[in-house]
Amino acid sequence: MRKKKESLRASILESLKNRKKARPRSASGLDRPEGTLIASYNVHKCVGADRRFDPERTSRVIHEIDADVIGLQEADTRFGERTGILDLRRLERETGLIPVPIAGVTKAHGWHGNVVLFKQGTVRDVHQINLPGLEPRGALIAELELVRGGSIRIIAAHLGLLHRSRAQQTRLIVELMNDGSETPTILLGDLNEWRLGDRSSLNTIQNAFGPLPPAVPSFPSTLPLLALDRIMANRRGMISAVEVHDSPLARVASDHLPIKAVVSLETLDSGAEMHSRTA
Question: How far, in Å, CA of 139 to CA of 229, rounded?
């Protein structure tokens, strides 16, 4: 228990130190960077920091981000027959984002609450993966052909709350990466890991994605201290620095802030160095 408290304390102190170094950035649409924007957002079943259920508010934050691809977590009710809680048709009309199709579900938006939305492109392939562990968790793998960015594979995941489960889940993700595919791949989602150093369950992911990028605190949204949400790529130079989408609305719409990064596929040729290695 002492080691756990020390690790949490170290993580919080590191987050506070990084917050002092960071310059405040505007989240307005006017500051949207050039290129293909990828984002991840745990919408907390549309329940905000004020404990109010408000899907409309959540949709407005998604509209603010203006991503070309966004992975959502907790976009369905969790128990019983999973039911989607966002108005996806309205979201498509207002943002152009459409969901990657999911097989075998009726009322749910996604797979174990994971949804991938994209615009201006086509879906080449979709896989729905059950992740091991005590809790029902899953990953959604989508291969997309984007008008703005070419071919890309998205692994959208929400890992478990237990360290042992996360370790099992990251090993499975690394195994999935060893399929011989050369498609540039991005892993994104709420990976639920706040530990630093050797005790982090994300260390296994380095076998497929290389050294982990700097952690960006995104939780809790009212005072972000822990980097639970991540975006990482299996090729060097593929994504810009990950940053939070920090707006007044995002601070209250969920207990997580969204995170985002620009993807550049045009600069990667077939000879570009990939991080993937045999686990």
Answer: 14
